[in-house]
UniProtKB/TrEMBL annotation:
Species annotation: Glareola pratincola
Alphabetical UniProt keywords: Membrane, Transmembrane, Transmembrane helix
Subcellular localization, as worded in the UniProt entry: Membrane
Pfam families: Tetraspanin
Family: Belongs to the tetraspanin (TM4SF) family.
CDD domains, per database record: CD37_CD82_like_LEL
Transmembrane spans: 16-38, 45-68, 188-211
Protein name: Tetraspanin
A GO cellular component entry from the record: plasma membrane
Membrane topology field: Multi-pass membrane protein
Domain of life: Eukaryota
Length: 225
């Protein structure tokens, strides 16, 4: 979980609240839909339709916000990651989950830092150790493959001090790595989003059809005077 001082971005907070709200609404929606369909209750089917419509509108709105505010979101994320790298401490258990997540990102994307390995020169622990250590999750050396997190010792440093250029780490920054991953998987992402939207539209259509059928049945059951 993000610490309060690090999770300071209003946009990210809003996004988290939206996801929580959508998750709760989805659970409620599924319950109402099943109950309405089984018992043929028109008002519940109407609520099911409304929930689906709200979720679809929310998804479209979130997509538009991300597209038009991507530069602002990138700056906010850069600030958060910069603070995380600067205060990264393997001995700090309070931030272990967040630090492990960042180590995982660096290992999986094969990147180092947000804009590059130079970002790690701001880390307080590495500065105190004259940069003779480096983040293990950034390493491109086979000897560090089994080390998941923390700092690794630089073998035979040329001087008593070193720089990020002396580290056996990936040159690519994680910002570029994430952008490249998104571009490479853009088709899959759009396909999944389109599939979800189509399913939601079908659910809306089916709920309307059921409401009409129930109304027709109720009308035919009304005794003629």
């Amino acid at each position: 979980l993000l610490a309060p001082t690090e999770m300071s971005s209003p946009s990210l907070k809003t996004g988290a609240y939206i996801l929580i709200g959508v998750g709760a609404l989805t659970m409620l929606m599924g319950f109402l839909g099943c109950l309405g369909a089984v018992n043929e209750i028109r008002c519940l089917l109407g609520l099911y339709f409304t929930c689906l419509m709200v979720i679809l509108i929310t998804q479209v709105a979130a997509g538009l916000v991300i597209y038009f505010q991507k530069e602002s979101l990138k700056e906010e994320l850069s600030s958060i990651v910069g603070s995380l790298i600067e205060n990264y401490d393997p001995a700090n258990d309070d931030k272990r989950n967040l630090q492990d997540t960042w180590d995982y990102v660096q290992r999986q994307i094969a990147c180092c830092g947000w804009t590059g390995a130079k970002d790690w020169e701001n880390n307080e622990i590495l500065i105190n150790k004259s940069m003779t250590e480096y983040p293990c999750s950034c390493s491109n050396s086979s000897k560090d493959l089994e080390v998941d997190s923390g700092f690794c010792n630089l073998d035979d440093p040329v001087n008593s001090t070193a720089t990020y250029a002396d580290w056996p780490v990936h040159e690519q920054g994680c910002m570029d790595g994430v952008e490249k991953w998104l571009k490479d998987n853009l088709g899959v992402i759009l396909g999944v989003c389109t599939g979800v939207a189509v399913i939601e539209l079908l659910g809306m259509i089916l709920s309307i059809s059921l409401c009409k059928n129930i109304h027709s049945e109720d009308y035919t059951k009304v005794p003629k005077s």
